Amino acid sequence: MEAAALESLKTHPRVLLIESDQDARKAILATLKKAGYTVMEATSSDQAVLLLGVNGHSTAVSAILCDIRAPKIKGIEAAAYFRVRYPLIPVIVTAAYPDIEWAITLMKRGAADYLVKPVSKDDLLMVLKSAVHRYMTITRGSL
């Protein structure tokens, strides 16, 4: 990633939100924008892949927030795909119900965290802030 893009993320962290449910997407979007994040929206993992770019030339994002039931590529496969394709970008997966086996599988496949809906604003922002901080710490050496 270009140094200018990384430098921009220091002051304007950008999150890719993958959520098929319009109401949930709007609520999360409002929370993230109010907290100062720039948000790219996708309704499916396929759309997210297109937004991130072709051949590894990703648009600068600090984190990916993905619903486990996103259409097309499901959350588990999406977490693994993004982890391989964009290994430095943390992927946070949300799910409608708690499932320890899914959580373990997701973490093994590269998810940075697993949140159960409905996610409180405080929990979402805390997890996201931590993920973005880790991303910035790792990429800081790339500048």
Word description of this protein:
With 143 residues, the chain is an alpha/beta fold. The protein has one domain: Response regulator (Rossmann fold, 3-Layer(aba) Sandwich), CATH 3.40.50. It has six helices and five strands; from the N terminus they run αβαβαβαβαβα. Strands 2-1-3-4-5 form a five-stranded parallel sheet, sandwiched between helices. The mean pLDDT is 84.
Write the layout of secondary structure elements.
Elements (H helix, E strand, L loop, with lengths): L2 H9 L2 E5 L3 H13 L3 E5 L2 H8 L10 E5 L7 H11 L5 E5 L4 H9 L4 E4 L4 H20 L3
Parallel strand pairs: 1-2, 1-3, 3-4, 4-5
Task: Briefly say what this structure is.
This protein has 143 residues and is an alpha/beta fold. The chain has 6 helices and 5 strands.
- CATH hierarchy: architecture: 3-Layer(aba) Sandwich
CATH superfamily: Response regulator
Which band does the percent of strand residues land in?
15-25%
The CATH topology is Rossmann fold
